Amino acid sequence: MLTFFSNKQDFQNFSFDQLFNINGLVIRSGKNRETLEFIHNKKKYYIKRFKNGSIIDQALYRFGIKKFCNDAFNEYQAYAFLKAIGILTPRLVCFGTEKKLLNNRTFVISEKISNFIQLDTFLETKNNNYPKQLQTNIYCELVNMINKLHTNGIIHHDLYLCHFLMDLNSFNKNKIKFYLIDYHRLEKKTEISNTLLIKELGDLLFSIKYFGNHKLFLQILNKKYCDLEFLTSNFKFIDRRANQLLTKYKKKYG
Q1: Could you tell me the pTM of the whole model?
Q2: One-letter-per-residue 3-state SS of the chain
Q3: Domains, the chain, ranges and CATH?
């Protein structure tokens, strides 16, 4: 089944199989999922396609032993959650699903954003040698996005700088624009546990310690985060996780 949200005229003659198996440049490949960039009618798109995995994987998912995230439905659902709270994301084009006994297949197609850069790449390239006001604007917008997520019960589960795309068209304007990506693990909860918040903030802090100006980020976080009482009480655990990830990352990549 194919559900279109935009650009239907560009893909209306495609079958599920043709879209699922479309060729392109592999951006990321993991167990049971793959992300490709492709061009169609002179426009650039991304497709993220999923397979259910082995029978053992499916048994682990069914009995709750392993969290199920190998399904584009979660990405499609996350898109709706994020849009509702004003978080920018790449424009969703199509959601496809095909249910079979042992091999469900799903995918999402989105438009490629023009003139952007991953935030980790930008910070690493600039090596923090850019105006203090621009740094402040970047970290203020990051905290603003985190607040929107956490006050609405949303946890990303992979909140690293590489999952924020900076709109370079907004670069010289007062308000920096970011697009959030890679939300196939995103969850919306009635209440987010302290454990998940510590992990999420620790992941982001690690990323900023490695690529950015973590002292400035923490100054802003300590003024603007949506739950300052939680932040103060749990900062040592957040910082510990960040440092553990930093040590592990440096050991692996230098």
Answers
A1: 0.87
A2: CEEECCCHHHHCCCCHHHHHCCCCEEEEEECCEEEEEEEECCEEEEEEEEECCCHHHHHHHHCCCCCCCCCHHHHHHHHHHHHHCCCCCCCEEEEEEECCCCCCEEEEEEECCCCEEEHHHHHHHHCCCCCHHHHHHHHHHHHHHHHHHHHCCEECCCCCHHHEEEEHHHCCCCCCCEEECCCCCCEECCCCCHHHHHHHHHHHHHHHHHHCCHHHHHHHHHHHCCCHHHHHHHHHHHHHHHHHHHHHHHHHHC
A3: 2-111 (3.30.200.20), 116-253 (1.10.510.10)
Question: For residues 75 and 187, is the Cβ–Cβ distance under 8 A?
Answer: no
CA R_g for the chain: 19
Mind listing the pLDDT tens digit for each residue in 32-90? Answer: 889 999 999 888 999 999 876 555 555 655 555 555 456 788 888 899 999 999 999 99
